[in-house]
Amino acid sequence: MNDSRFATPDHPIHELLVRRWSPYVFADRSVAVADIRSLFEAARWAASSYNEQPWSYIVAAREDAAEHARVLSCLVEANQAWAQRAPVLAIAIASLRFRRNDKPNKAAIHDLGAAAASLTVEASARGLCVHQMIGIEPERARASFAVPDGYEPFTGLAIGYPGDAATADEKMRERDLAPRSRKSLDEFVFTGTWGRPSSLL
Question: What is the pLDDT of residue 1?
């Protein structure tokens, strides 16, 4: 992977987090079934409120061209343009109510994100990348895959090995090669009152 894609943290963090990034350009290389299983196993063991585990996934590898195309069709057009080259596609779905009492689960989307974070770190450990997208067509996903009421198709995931940005069109190349940036800690970690940077920083 191109070193310019690595994070440049201000404080030490794990190398797997440094290497995590979301490419637009994927290599023409399949992902082993064993690796796919391990990514979702990592999601399985994420923390969740009351151990509800509100996440579900619709997943397809390009070896099953029809299913891969069906998942792809649930992405918005702009995302389809680049995600079609990813060897594995998935739709992440959240159960919005607790199984134990049928009350709204206000943590469901948070917990879906926690599962996604676990999945992406496992991907980094295996030399893989995951590009998550909010740009999906939820109702198309619901209809295409018979997603029941109470479950919300929420994000798309493109999974694979990072490709050579030089082989992509100009727009995708620019996106993949753009410098990475993040807010500084004092912009979002506060103590005492909103907006006051924490003294712990």
Answer: 45
